[in-house]
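Researcher: We are triaging several targets before committing to wet-lab work. For this one, the compound of interest is magnesium ion. I'm pasting the protein sequence and the ligand SMILES. What I need is the predicted three-dimensional arrangement of the protein with the ligand bound, expressed as structure tokens, so it can go straight into our comparison scripts without reformatting.
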Amino acid sequence: SIGVHQTEEIQSSFTREHSSIIANSPLSIINTLYGKVNNSTTGEDANIEEDIEIKKKKIFLFACSSEALTKRLRSKTFHAILRQEIAYFDDPNNNTGALCTRLATEASAVQGATGIRIGLMLKNFASLGVGIILAFMFSWQLTLLILGFIPFLVVGSFLERYLATGFASKDKKLFEDVGKVTVESIQNIRTVVQLTKEDYFYKKYCSFLEIPYRSSIKRAYVFGLSFALANSVLYFMLAALFRLGAYLLIKNTVSFKDILSCLGCILFGAQSVGHTVSTSPDYTKAVNAAEKIFEFLNRKPIMDNSSRDGDDIPNFNGQLEFNGVDFIYPNRPESIILRNFKLKIQAGQQVALVGTSGSGKSTVIQLIERFYDANIGQLLIDSKDIRNLNLQWYRSQIGIVSQEPVLFDMSIRENIAYGNNSRNDIPMEEIIEAAKNANIHDFIQKLPQGYETNCGTKGTQLSGGEKQRIAIARALIRNPKILLFDEATSALDSENEKIVQQALDHAKKNRTSITIAHRLSTIQNADMICVLHNGDIVESGTHQELLALHSHYYQLALGKLR
Ligand SMILES: Nc1ncnc2c1ncn2[C@@H]1O[C@H](COP(=O)(O)OP(=O)(O)O)[C@@H](O)[C@H]1O
Ligand SMILES: [Mg+2]
């Protein structure tokens, strides 16, 4: 069966190669013949070796520069990806697979328009220009005749370029889809295996691969055909040239030598154009890729994650105030998530948010982290608009522990130390201190490799409770003024919940904290409990006060609203 596949591949490449060989060979023969005639009169054989040496150096320098360019484009693109606002990543077009594929393919595709290719194209265009000027000097009649053919040549190569462009952009989209499937299935391999969806994803992957394959076969034929057409113009030109040349010769208007020289110059130029045309698909792809990359690099993120512009607050207290905030997720403009949301949290206050699923609790947390900005109204941090603050500084003041903690594929020590990037070297004592406060130190010590134990990809080598406590240690080591807990204990069994809860209670001391809790038992001691319903606070107060109201909170406590 490999043979069958091979023949198809050979066929498609043959179509292209074949036409180019047929198109180019007579030219080179004539050129060689002409070159021989020329050499026998001037005899410049000795220069050839020197020429090759220069060529080698030229290729080397061009290659180096294009490799460096690819590297630079890649790192710039990655940097730009990291800078985009969170809403950018909500767009399905910008999911992991698509972005990774783009990063991998586009930067290297640009090579097609750089380095040696650019050099060659410059050379070729220069050759054409020089060729035409010289040809005019030998015989203007013949040259004019040839120039008449130039529009056809241009149309031919334009057609070719146009066809290749259409294919190139379609290809890109398809490969992004392929990337999506790969990343999604590998990232979620446990779920895929558990649902026994291996075959489904395999078939989906293959079907995606099939489309670019089919289109590339089609392209090979179309490309071969248009290439042949574009080049056939050259033969008609030659025929006309010989006819007129013979006529002029009989009329004694030009000498035989002039015809030959004119022909040589023109062929020299024409061959250069042919060369340029034959490298145009790569070139088009490259130009397309470059366009996309620069478009992306020039994209100004609505909110620049890496920005250090704006103010720091010198004696930051951790006071928060939502001042009539309306919020809509940019990718779902039809539903208003928060409506005229008002909430004031004093420095050091422990606030709990409760409410049915989908009532907007996590959204409030995301606004506090400034993953999104309010559409209407303001979020004030120590009485300053959050949008005027230095984002990097502000985020460093916040610790967050969510339901599904994400650990990186590195040691426990590094995972904890990642919480604090104000310094490069976090002393071991501080890490241990944070671990102790998070109730995880004893566990870590019992591990054979202690703090150097690897957490595995996404922390898969630890249990939920252990991961959660490491995440708490990571939040604590930055000594944040504001702590956010988004259902931090919801995924845990009651035994683990107790241990994690202890760690949380300890962490909340002397800090502003906002806790989202599923089980009301965990937030009974909060200074203020806010009940959210459809993006609005419907009641707030202490546990006792709210119970006495016999309303939303009471219903929640009885489990009726769930
Ligand atoms: N990234 C997002 N893009 C669009 N809609 C979202 C996004 N995140 C949450 N939502 C929607 O916002 C509403 C509130 O969600 P959320 O704040 O997560 O609720 P809760 O945490 O209270 O369960 C839900 O209807 C949810 O579908
Ligand atoms: Mg939530």
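Researcher: Any quick observations?
Model: Confidence is low (pLDDT under 50) at residues 1-45.
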